[in-house]
Amino acid sequence: MNTSTHGIPGIVRSQTVLAYFAYPTQTSVSFTNQWPQPFPAVTICNYSPYLYDQFIRSYLNYTNTFNLTNTTNTSRDAFTPQQALYINDYLQYKLNGNESIDEIYFPLSSMLIKCVYNGANCSTADFVEFKSATYGLCYTFNAEASHINNGSIHYNNENGFSGKLHLDLYIHRHQYVPFISDAASIVTMIHDNTQLPLVDRLGIELVPGRKHKISYSTKNNVFLPSPYTTCTEKSNLGMQAMFNQFSGANYTYGQQICFQVANQIYTYEQCGCVSPRQWTTRYIVPLGTTDVIYASICNISDPCYSAATNRFRNSPSVTSKYAADCDLECSTNEFVIQVSSSSAPQQWYMNDIKQFVENSSNSLPMNWSTTWSTEIQSNYVGLDVVCGSTQVESYTQQATLQAVDVISNIGGQTGLWIGISFLSLMEFAEMLYRLLRYQLHYMQRKICRKMTEN
User: Fold this and answer.
1) Are 35 and 162 within 8 A, CB to CB?
2) How large a percentage of the chain has pLDDT more than 70?
3) What pLDDT band is residue 8 in, cutting at 50, 70 and 90?
4) Alpha helices in 223-379 (DSSP H)
5) Rg of the chain (C-alpha set)
6) Distance between CA atoms of 291 and 145, rounded to whole angstroms?
7) How high is the pLDDT of residue 419?
8) CA dist., res. 245 & res. 265, Å (int)
9) In angstroms, rounded to a whole number, what is the distance separating the alpha carbons of residues 417 and 426?
10) Exposure of 31 by Cβ count < 10 A (0-12 exposed, 13-18 middle, 19+ buried)?
11) DSSP result, 357-413
12) Kind plus residue range of the DSSP H or E element containing 414
């Protein structure tokens, strides 16, 4: 018998229903004027990680104790390439012995001449610090932290300005440990307020003797959550253990950080220690456990950690197992920057810098009294970070088919295949309701009659 109900399978087979469960997406691009905007975080590091005067006595004590050298000469000019060969071993020894090495880094107080945000003075107390395996101690202005600015971040409209951070810095290049740094500069990075900066990869090097201007504009990326993508904002236990070692900053999930942690977990399981090239990631949580382990650092000459890193990066099975939850972030803020510079400092500012250097905790260069002007020119770094545009470029992932689109299309398919409309379906539903109501009333009357007869 031919009836219109034969068209029902055609509805089920319609491309609209199948397409909906494939979860197709599209990306919309929009430009909006956002005012005020959160001012980004600004990270600075000295290019050389170690302060020679604080480093050398402890280092010579180590090398002499292990018969690697036999000298007590702490002069920088006497430091040889042979002596520099043992620096990585020295760091491994100190770190594996749970000894602090903070004292051998450049303190911010010795580098920060001036800090001004939107016309208001700022200080070292407005920065959070974190450790970089490449640059030592680094410092971030406007990171989200509970103990700074009442737990809030700065916005670019504060004090009636439009968003400008000014920093005057002094790098003390005469205190660089010889043979480990091939340049002299300040390394900086502009990033999101809750992002642990990968300054080793993404930092910008600012040469001394210049005032640098970094103008930025903001770009947002937003992805849909499951089932449309596998994006995530959840930090796993290993990442959280890494974040907890830093000074109160509220860091959030980052895919590259997640891969770095996963790599160290795999290296630890293979070698019993973690890579010295990423030694700041040594709080790890082995797979299948919730135990946080403070892992030891591999010897720099140990081939195991390099081999483990190569397997992690090149083996899809290893990566998918140890980095299973390292998906893209669901939302990111990026900063498109333009960099320019001019000669600095001006002559009228030289005496102020001279006074700062002489009052700092670092020793002065030889012949400072006659060469201080030249020293300042080769150590001063100025930095202005300014909001270049209030226009925000947004890339937003959207579902191509919404549930309402599917219902609408099914309605059209229903009319096409079995010749009824939505109104017909409603009339059919009303008919069923009336039939059911009539049947209910009929049964009630029948029960009532039986009760009366009895």
Assistant:
1) no
2) 89
3) low
4) 237-243, 255-271, 303-314, 316-322, 350-359, 368-377
5) 32
6) 26
7) 57
8) 17
9) 17
10) exposed
11) HHHSSSPPPTTHHHHHHHHHHTTEEEEEEEE--SEEEEEEEEESS-HHHHHHHHHHH
12) helix 403-418
Distance CA 286, CA 322 (A): 9
Distance CA 151, CA 433 (A): 60
- Which residue is it, tokens 């002596």? 83
CA–CA separation, 281 and 128 (whole Å): 18
pLDDT, tens digit, 9 for 90 and up, residues 336-380: 999 999 999 999 999 999 999 999 989 999 999 999 999 999 999
Tokens 């043992």 correspond to 86
Beta bridge partners of 218: 335
The total of other beta-carbon atoms located within 10 Å of residue 66's CB is 12
Residue with tokens 């090149």: 314
Cβ neighbour number for residue 101 with a 10 Å cutoff: 18
Residue 450: the pLDDT is 74
- Give the long-range contacts of residues 172-175, CB within 8 A, separation 24 or more: 172/46, 172/51, 172/106, 172/110, 172/111, 172/357, 172/360, 172/362, 172/379, 173/48, 173/208, 173/378, 173/379, 174/76, 174/365, 174/375, 175/48, 175/51, 175/52, 175/53, 175/106, 175/362, 175/363
**Average of pLDDT values for 140-144?**
97
**Beta partners for residue 139, in sequence order:** 44, 129
- pLDDT over 60 (residue 151): yes
CA distances from 47 to 172, 343, 372, 440 (A): 11, 20, 21, 86
Residue whose pair of structure tokens reads 């081999």 in the numeric block: 307
**CA distances, 281 to each of 75, 196, 289, 296 (Å):** 33, 12, 18, 11
198-229 pLDDT, tens per residue? 999 999 999 999 999 999 999 999 999 989 89
Q: Tell me, what's the pLDDT at 385?
A: 98
Task: List 249's β-bridge partners, or say none.
Answer: 145
Going by pLDDT thresholds of 50, 70 and 90, the confidence category of residue 434 is confident
How many residues does the structure list for the chain? 454
pLDDT the model gives residue 449: 77
Q: Which of 353, 364, 143, 161 is nearest to 250 (CA)?
A: 143
CA–CA gap between residue 283 and residue 264 (Å, rounded): 9
Interatomic CA distance for residues 356 and 266, integer angstroms: 47
